[in-house]
Amino acid sequence: MTRHQRRPEKRIPAKGIPRQGRGLAAAVGGWSARHRKTAVFGWLLFVVLATVLGGMAGSLQTTDQDNGIGQSGRADQMIDRAGINSPATETVLIQAKGFTATDPRFHAAVDDAVNAVKSTGAASAVKSPYSDGAIAPNGHSALVTVTMAGDPDTADDRVAPVLAAVAGVQAKHPDLTVQEFGDASADKWFNDAFTHDFSRAEWTAVPLALGILLIAFGALVAAVLPVLLASDWPSASTTASSTCAVSGRNGPRAAPPRPRSPSPPPPPDGPSWSRASPWSSPWPGCSSPGSPTSRPWAWPPSWS
Q1: pLDDT digits (tens, 9 = 90+) for 221-278
Q2: Cis peptide leading into residue 289 (ω within 30°)
Q3: What integer pLDDT is reported at residue 148 of this predicted model?
Q4: Residue 91's closest CA among 184, 191, 188?
Q5: Residues 125, 131, 133, CA angle at the centre, nearest 5°?
Q6: What is the pLDDT of residue 274?
Q7: Which residues of the chain are under the pLDDT cut of 70?
Q8: What is the pLDDT of residue 298?
Q9: What's the Cα-to-Cα distance from 157 to each of 118, 183, 240, 277, rounded to whole Å?
Q10: Mean pLDDT, the chain, as a whole number?
Q11: Three-state DSSP state, 106
């Protein structure tokens, strides 16, 4: 009678996944998981160096001439090479509902606006509507034209005194409407609104993102690092992928070794009383456990 035994299974090396099958990300993640402190402080040092070097290198900003396309873009480039720059202009609207521009009160408001803007020193030219004819046909509205001095690209940095002067004229003449609008004031308003909205979003979006990352990663360091990279160090935001390496339980690890099946003990010389016996019954007529006709073994064994 032949006794059947299982063939030994092929065992996978204890190190898990073979090295030739692991990618670069898995290798870096595994190294970071084994050297947590080195990985954390190494990435922080890299972020600091990237921020410093990025600040030293500076950045290049495009102009309207660089962004132009087609014939209009080529025309803008030709004008720029010729040194012809259009200055930033502002317009002060003076409007009255109960009287017209011929009224002394209207005339006084126009003179106050012209003198107030000139006194700031930020304007190279100020034109009265009585000199250039910028008066509405019905006589209830007039425009004071202001040409800003200096570079038109930075006029928004120097328009604040002009806005304050116009606001003073409005306070002095409450029975009229005195408002200002133009290139420099529009840019200043947009920049102020953008800065204010962005600073306010930091108090809502950043805590929300931190909470989501904390729930996703389950580790405080892994959740805080990408938030700091996105908010404080934008030039080094590409290093946010390191978050999976700073937490040992989040980084990729080698697969655990496959459990080996225990080798069966040698078969006994007599009958076995176990249903889970991994070998066939030594008695004739008895079925092997696990077969369709398996039944409990008992003593005395079946001889049929």
Answers
A1: 777 777 676 655 444 444 434 433 333 344 444 444 555 555 555 555 544 444 444 4
A2: no
A3: 93
A4: 184
A5: 115
A6: 44
A7: 1-22, 64, 227, 229-304
A8: 46
A9: 17, 12, 35, 89
A10: 74
A11: helix
Alpha-helical regions (H) of 173-235:
183-217, 220-231
> Where do the CATH 3.30.70.260 domains begin and end in the chain?
89-184
| Token representation of residue 2 | 């032949």
pLDDT of residue 239: 40
- Looking at the DSSP assignment, which residues form a beta bridge with residue 178? 94
CATH superfamily of this structure's domain 89-184: ACT domain (3.30.70.260)
Contact 178, 94 (CB under 8 A): yes
* Side-chain half-sphere CA neighbours of 113 within 13 A: 33
Nearest of 200, 247, 209, 212 to residue 228 by alpha carbon: 209
Q: How far apart are CA 106 and CA 201, in angstroms?
A: 44
Contact 108, 114 (CB under 8 A): no
Residues 91 and 182 sit within 8 Å (Cβ to Cβ): yes
CA distance 16 to 29: 15
Q: How big, in percent rounded to 5, are the helix, strand and coil portions of the chain? A: 50, 10, 40
Token pair for residue 238? 């590409």
175: buried, middle or exposed (CB in 10 Å: 19+, 13-18, 0-12)? exposed
User: Is the Cβ–Cβ distance between 111 and 136 less than 8 Å?
Assistant: no
